[in-house]
Amino acid sequence: MATVANPNATIIAGETWELPKDRPWLAKMGRLARENPIGAVSLLVVVGFVFLGVVGASLTPYPPRELDATSQFLSPRLAHPFGTTKFGQDIFSRILAGARIDLKFGVVILFFGFFPGTALGILSGYFGRWLDYLIQRSGEAWGAFPQLFLLLTFVAAFGPGLRTVEMVVAIGALFGGSRIMRVVALVEKQKEYVIGARSTGASEFRLLWRHVLPNIMPFILVGLSSVFAAAVLVESALSFLGLGVSPGEPSWGADLSTGVGRGSTYPWLVIFPGAAISLVVLAFNLLGDTLRDILDPRLRGSTGAKR
Amino acid sequence: MLRYTLRRLSFLPIILIAVSIAVFVLLRVLPTSDIADVIGGQNATPEQKRAIREQYHLNDPIFPITFDTSVPFVGVQRNSQYSRWLFDALRGDFGKTYLSQKSVRSEFIRRFPASFEIVALSLFFSVSFGILFGILSAMYRNSPLDYFVRIFSVFGTSVPEFFLLSLLIIIPSYLWNYSAPVGGYVPIYDDPWTNLRLFLPAALIIGIGGSAGLMRLVRTTMLEVLRSDYVRTAKAKGLRQHTVVLTHALRNASTPILTAVGTAFIAVFGGSVIAERILSIDGNGLFLFQSTFSRDLPVIQFLAIYTATVVVLVNLVVDLSYAFADPRVKYS
Fold it and tell me: Quick check: ipTM above 0.90?
């Protein structure tokens, strides 16, 4: 076949047309953002959260751990926008620094729970049989118990600390991810493109990696964002209960919990850490919903996105 | 139906034995810290610890069957910790708590009414709000009510319960000098006002927060069903709207909704632990929480069995309720 200088040019009977060029990706993103303002705002919050998680600890106006007896329980003001704690620590700085714990926690859950679970789910939906049976039955047994109960039992066994919490939540995400992806893979393997690719002699591995995986990416992205929402919720809940981070570490849940005792006199001790948790979880949930609406029209209509 | 129920119930002992073995492996086989330290305290002398180990049979093998690399590979042990626990449990004796030396069973029974009340109230709010507003939002799609329900259900799944419960304690006290009651359980038949003042706000928060997921599910399921042909037929023959929605649509949407009610129960059951902790309600959630910190093994073992029983029974009730809601479902 002759090479065409301009791939967008089509030559028919001596005439030349230009096919409309693809819009630059920035313009595409702009249009998507205008169509989904809620999604765009939540994406901004999520990006901000990830940014704070990476560099937040070095942006704090005051050292988040340092005690200062001269500035206890200051109400919100210009120098301390969110007020100060019982130990005179700046709450704003502690919230900036606290994003790191949740981000780290979420990433651990992704890599030790959700991603292996996704792989397991695809394999079990795709190949089925005893592997499928084993994974699904264990997942059901695990999921039957209240998560807090499992966490408490594991804390009794392994002692309190983020390691224990990570282990329990990662196992849950493993089974959760595998359950969703299994169904997706079951649907996907019946489709024509899989049969087509197989008939051209593609190996099973190539089929999974090059054909099935890109097609189920939307589900993985949606799952990713809900896993992060759940991770932030669980980390803060467990740190709130005193089972997560070690005392004194800047964690939103732990700060909220230490604030409750004096919260009726100094409500900012509770409101700002709680608002930080709620905002980030809300952003991940809304981002997941928006992604689902954009990427997979079949699932449309479950939330607020307009059409 | 009866045979199906009995068959399902016959699995219960097997599940409970599996759970108890799993808990034994977690708590006793994995050597994280010496239980003698837990009971005797950090300052216990080696002699005291030895006495404690002897008294609590901690030197005995954990399971009645041990595996060995030398012939004959499998050994049978008399007086293992597990068999001792199992035979006591079969007689209804779940041992004494390590710390207070009180019977686990009577401690559990004493705390049960408080936990039961908070779970029952929360579940009531969660199910009634979830189903009512889910149906209304599907019926009046894109109305202000529908938008409110959709926004609420996203917020309800995002704002954590412990934050709302903390606000419940601090906000009224900051604004109006009214301190919400904390702790001090009074049975509802003794003093309904004191009782409800403690439980109602907490149950509303856990219940309404928990209803968000249910609301969303009811809405999507009802939207699907309301589009179906039989609903159009029912409307066309002139039935009143609430007859169409309640008997024709809701009944056909009942299977996923009942599943979600079961899930809501399990969620509320877990959420009550947090509520009991924040409001210092002396229920079984707080019991489990404190025993976790003190590694009070008999308590954790018993509460694991209790939770497993509740989970199995709830799932059974949900499965059986399918048959009542949908005559096409038959168990034999």
Answer: no
